[in-house]
């Protein structure tokens, strides 16, 4: 049973556009929702994270929107740039858990 | 500060061979873990450790062994490699305490089993 569902699997956005990646979770004990960015040949790196006591967190061009009642969260990349082309993973974990549960990833391509 | 270092970066094995993937971190992190990444499958947890001498299974532990004799090192052993273990393996670490701490990943070991 997949605990974190991520969509879409791939995304093509024009330079300057908005990229939106969505995730849904099932376990209501999850209380930490990070997004990781991965470039080819590299390991994932933390991009931005949110806790369920806030509905939105913004860091530069990257924003997480969180809907606790719907058990959904999303990553918005404003003014998308070719350098943003990468694979993005959402994840979730709980205070009681010991591991991050990852979504299956979204490959983003930003065309110039 | 090297962070999380994985060796080797690439490896080709024959079915039935054994090998050890090495992982070392220099951040004094208590928690370390191994993931495998397969196309369309995301990152799946193999084994993890919350400190020296303590290990536990993740989502896909079959065919893999781990040990944690020091805080710095967390090797992953394949006892008898199978083609289904062809994957990219990532080691990660984070500081002790709640899992709500950033995980630091190595750059992976790309393993092919023929």
Summarize, please:
The complex is a heterodimer of chains A (112) and B (114). Chain A is mainly β and 112 residues long.
Task: Report what the structure shows.
The complex is a heterodimer of chains A (112) and B (114). By secondary structure, chain A is mainly β. Helix content of chain A is 0%, strand content 53%. In chain A, strands 2, 4, 5, 9, 10 and 11 form a six-stranded mixed sheet that branches. A five-stranded antiparallel sheet of chain A has the order 1-3-8-7-6, with no helix packed on it. Chain A is globular. The N and C termini of chain A lie far apart (38 Å). Chain B contains no helices and eleven strands. In chain B, strands 2, 4, 5, 6, 9, 10 and 11 form a seven-stranded mixed sheet that branches. The interface between A and B is medium-sized, with 26 and 25 residues.
Instruction: Describe the global form of chain A.
Output: globular
Quaternary class:
heterodimer
Radius of gyration of chain A: 13 Å
Strand content of chain A: over 45%
Write the SSE topology.
The complex is a heterodimer of chains A (112) and B (114).
Chain A lengths: L3 E4 L2 E5 L4 E7 L7 E6 L6 E6 L5 E4 L2 E6 L4 E6 L8 E7 L8 E2 L3 E6 L1
Parallel strand pairs in A: 2-11
Antiparallel strand pairs in A: 1-3, 3-8, 4-5, 4-9, 6-7, 7-8, 9-10, 9-11
Chain B lengths: L3 E4 L2 E4 L5 E7 L5 E8 L3 E10 L2 E4 L6 E3 L9 E3 L8 E8 L9 E2 L3 E5 L1
Parallel strand pairs in B: 2-11
Antiparallel strand pairs in B: 1-3, 3-8, 4-5, 4-9, 5-6, 7-8, 9-10, 9-11
């Amino acid at each position: 049973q997949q605990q974190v569902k991520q969509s879409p699997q791939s995304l093509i956005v024009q330079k300057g556009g908005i990229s939106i990646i969505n995730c849904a979770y099932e376990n209501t004990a999850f209380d930490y929702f990070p997004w990781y960015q991965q470039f080819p040949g590299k390991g994932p790196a933390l991009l931005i994270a949110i806790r369920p006591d806030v509905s939105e967190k913004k860091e530069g061009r990257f924003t997480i929107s969180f809907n606790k009642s719907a058990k959904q969260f999303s990553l918005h990349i404003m003014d998308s740039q070719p350098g943003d082309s990468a694979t993005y993973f959402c994840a979730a974990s709980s205070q009681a858990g010991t591991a991050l549960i990852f979504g299956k990833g979204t490959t983003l391509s930003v065309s110039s | 500060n090297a962070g999380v270092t994985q060796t080797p970066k690439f490896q080709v094995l024959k079915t039935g061979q054994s090998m050890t993937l090495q992982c070392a971190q220099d951040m004094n992190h208590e928690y370390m873990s191994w993931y495998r990444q397969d196309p369309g499958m995301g990152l799946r947890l193999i084994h993890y450790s919350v400190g020296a001498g303590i290990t536990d299974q993740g989502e896909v532990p079959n065919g893999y062994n781990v040990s944690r004799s020091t805080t710095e090192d967390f090797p992953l052993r394949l006892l008898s490699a199978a083609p289904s273990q062809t994957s990219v393996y990532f080691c990660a670490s984070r500081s002790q305490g709640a899992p709500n701490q950033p995980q630091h990943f190595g750059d992976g070991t790309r393993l092919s089993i023929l």
